[in-house]
Amino acid sequence: MTAISRRLTGARGSRQGMWMLPLLIALAVALWLSLETAQFLNGENLLNLVPQAMPLVITAVGQMFVILLGGLDLSVGSMISFTTAVLALGGPAWVLIPAVFALAALVGFSNGFIITRFNVHPIIATLSTQYILLGITRVLRPVSGGTVPDIVISAVAGSFLGVPMPVFWGIFILAVAWKLLYGSRFGLHLFAIGGGVSSGVEDAAHNFGIADRRNIVLAYVICSCFAALAGVFLAGRIVSGDPNVGLLFELDAITAVAIGGTQLSGGIGSLHGTVIGALVMALLANGMNLTNVSPFIQTTIKGAILLLVVALQSRKKMGL
Amino acid sequence: MAAAFANPVMRRLLRVPPAYYVFAVLLVVLWVARPNMLNLNIMGIFVRQIVPLGILVLGQLLVMRVRSIDLSGGGVILLINYTISSGAFPGASMAFFIVLALAIGLAVGFFNGLMVGVRRVSAVIVTLAVGIVLVGIVQYLSSGKPPGDVPGMFADIYNTKLGPVPTPVIFWVAFSAALSLFLSRTVFGRYVTSVGENVQAAHFSGVPVARTVVLAHTLAGLFAGIAALVQTASIAVGSVRVGLDLPILAVAATILGGVVFGRGEGGVWGPFFGVLSFALLFVVMTTFGIDEPGKLIAQGLIILLAAIFYGIRQRSS
Description:
The complex is a heterodimer.
Chain A (H helix, E strand, L loop, with lengths): L1 H8 L10 H17 L6 H26 L7 H12 L5 H25 L4 H19 L9 H8 L1 E2 L2 E2 H18 L2 H14 L5 H4 L4 H27 L10 H11 L11 H20 L4 H18 L8
Antiparallel strand pairs in A: 1-2
Chain B lengths: L1 H5 L1 H8 L2 H16 L6 H10 L1 H15 L7 H13 L8 H25 L4 H20 L9 H7 L2 E2 L2 E2 H19 L1 H11 L1 H6 L4 H27 L10 H11 L12 H19 L4 H25 L1
Antiparallel strand pairs in B: 1-2
């Protein structure tokens, strides 16, 4: 027992945040669903859960990198819609797919560049990016339609060696994110920069000789690219471009990250927590669909969860 | 670039909020492209349409001066529009609706204020989440279908004129003037300035920081309630989409008017002209045939460019 409480409060796990609590919540939600509805433990429903959760897992993991350094990226929802619209433009896959990621990297770079070089608050910078991207998406594709390249569809809907493709997506995402966060100097610097920001010393990491601007820009590029990856996945599922598919996705992603124990003020958080947080959100969405909760009230419930989670986190800074 | 910013004449010019320049440029563009549109009657109609935004901006500038933000205005407007037009209170008087709207606005604003000022939660996330909660409630209650009509008395008041100027416009100007006086003459106005300049210094000088932030948010909620009444009167029917793009426009107009987080040099009249710039911008874009996506891009670009403008200037000083 003391070992558990030390692990929860002690120095060793303190950088990871409270990720065990959401794990319990996830198990509780799953238990409730399996008792409440007969369909939940159905094999087909469980198989559907992975592709349902995947876009949110991908976006939330990307968002986590930015949140860890005390920032926020509100443009990921538009980025997802934009990606599906570009993929549905019609054209060879070997042009469209690299183009999508090049554009995402460009958007992420411009976010990071504006934030670090022009002293613009991350929320303002990404809020304006969100609107610019949404406008461009609506120009490209005013209503949903078009077809995405076949390779994207088979990469999402197909299976390899009898295992559905989304499982491989999940393994790939987790491997990349794990390497970036725990296996690279970049990941270590993220925690250093965010830890300074959250304790009120904005340039603490900079004073220790960490190239903070470069790392911040890189984090925004990663966040945008993960959002684009989620967009490719969604495009493969809906088989067309949709200007509204990413609507409010940024809030779901932020909620997932916050549920997973990552502090929105930066410096504290973990990859496994974020994945668990995204799974909690996906389980809730699945459960609300199975129990026929109105989609309109689902939005309200998600908003209320976000309010609750952020209200439970304490921080020093006031305002934005 | 830094040298140009250091020049005294340039510095004086840069201290003027960009809203005035944008307003002047747009006026010239319109004068060249469509000179016959620049008369008092047509302009009165265009400005009348933007009054709800103008009132929302008054609340937005208040919270942005204490380094906060309020994105829940769209949800408040939608909820109030729904309660008035749904016919849930048949035969209710005008005064009842006004009190109800103000109460809803005050309650939402007070909640935002508590979360931001006392719980110290990120203002963007709180107000965005409150906004979606309210939108979700309205969509659930109305099942996504537009509700009924607004009582006729709203439109009757909205359509009155004093000489050539529509009453809503006069109300807006008077309201702005009152807020301007309120901020420059009262203790609360001083508190707002000092909290915006430096939260810690304000705290150690005995300024009740949390109370100031809560009050600023409560007032912003109240103003959103008033904006909702004007908006409801202007469209005269119930809607499930009304006002959803207003919060972001309010942020854009406020930034354009020289009020950036904590810095209030644009006063009340800078954002006022920011709103007028947006009124003109929409007229200009409509005359040049630019539709909704173009307007989204323009909003985003304006926020971005104005924020970059302040960022560079802050660094060079």
